[in-house]
Amino acid sequence: QQEKEDLQGKLKLREHLSQTAGKSEATPAPSKNIDLEMKQLQCKLKNSNTEITKQSTTIKSLKKQVQEKEEWIRELQAKISQLERDLTVKRHFIEDLRSCLKANQENEKTSNETLESLERKVKALVEDKKASIDSMKQRFDVAMKEKSQYEQMYHKAKDDLEKKDLKLTKLERKMIETECAMIELETAGSQQLHGLAKQSTQALEALQKELLLTNDKVEEFKTFVKTLTRELHHSVQELRTKTKLAKKMGEMKACKKGLSQESLQLAASILNVSTTDLYEILQEGDDEETAKTKMEFEKDEEWLQRIQKLLDAQFPFASYLMDAVLEKLNEEKKLVEEYSSLMKHTV
What's this model's pTM, rounded to 2 decimal places? Predict the structure, then answer.
């Protein structure tokens, strides 16, 4: 039964392979594999037949044993008939013989049951063999049909290949013609490129000159912006110093009004300095003023660095540069107004 199931599984696998092979376009090489598998299956069937013959021989031997046992039972019965005369003496012996007969009968029943089961198995194997042979015949017919289909496909593919070979020869001729035309075009193109290269070199030289001029103009612009920022910085610093001096002059006048001239002269004579120097000494040590000047100096440095960054940055930067310059100009304007107002008050 196990070999039967294996054969059925292999035949199913063969059907699946034949279906997949029918879908794909290929040469008639799979038919050889089919023939090999068919031969292998026939060999397996022969092996199963040999096993069946072996089992039949065993059944015959068992039948012979049964016949021998029956003959032996007959002999025992004859002996029993002879020993019935001496029932009183040999009753115990007869009972033993009856128990042996019962055991032999039971063995006979079991052997008969085994024989019946073996006969059933043989019948089932014969039927399975017939069914497998029929299915193999049907599959063999299908395989032959597939073989004919594959042969037709092979002939079609061969014809297609011959046509494609003709097309390839034509294409090769066209390729040779196109290569010749390409060589001619390359020679003409090289000549044109040579002329274009001369024109491009002249154009590049003119562009290089223009670039040099533009670079010079940019450098001039940068120097102009740098000098302008420096001048603005210097002018703002000068205005700051002037406003500070104007504030100090106003404070000195107020201090002169508060102090008497004699006390100022006395202090100047003691310190051996003039009265103006004395006012400057009195104004020294103002921490708030020094901190303010320091902050202004730092702001000026930051402004100069920002201008430099804008000049080094990429285009466009004109609007940012204009805002920075206007910031410094507004600061200068405020300082001028403050200085003019201080000068009016001091006068």
Answer: 0.35
